[in-house]
Amino acid sequence: MQVAHSNSDANAPHREKNTPTGPNHGKSALVLLAFVVILIIAASSTTVSRNKIDANNKLQTRIEALESQLGITISDSKKSGDTMEDKIKKLDARLTTAHNDITQLTTALNDKTKKTLDAHDKSLSNLQSNVSDIKKSVAQNEKLGSDSKQRG
Description:
The chain is mostly helical. Helices cover 84% and strands 0% of the residues.
C-alpha cells in the first residue's frame, strides 16, 4: 500500500538527515585523516632532521679526530701559511724516503741471506762428501776385517 504525499512534499528537494553516516560525518573523517597524515609527516621530518644532526655531529667529531692525527687544524694551517697540499707533499716525501730505506734494507738482507745459504750449501756438500768417504772407509775396514778372519 502506497501513501500519497502532498504536492508540497513531492516538489520539495530531498533533504538528508544529519546522521553519523551522513555527508558531514564523511567530511569530518576526511579532515581527521588529513590531520593524522600531517602529524605523521611532521614526526618523520623531525626524525630525519634529528638523524641529520646526529650524522653531522659524528662527521664533525671524525674530522676533529683526523685533524689531530695529522697534527693540523684548519686554523693552524692558515696561521702557518701551509696549505693542505703542502702538508700532503711533505708527508709524501717522508713516505718516499721510508720506502727507499725499506727497499735498501730488504736488498741488503736478501744479499746477506743468499750468501749465508750459499755457504750452507757448500758446507752441506762437504759434509755429504765426508759422510760418503766415511761410509767407504767403514765398508773397506769391514771387508778387511772379514778377510783377515777368513785367513786366520
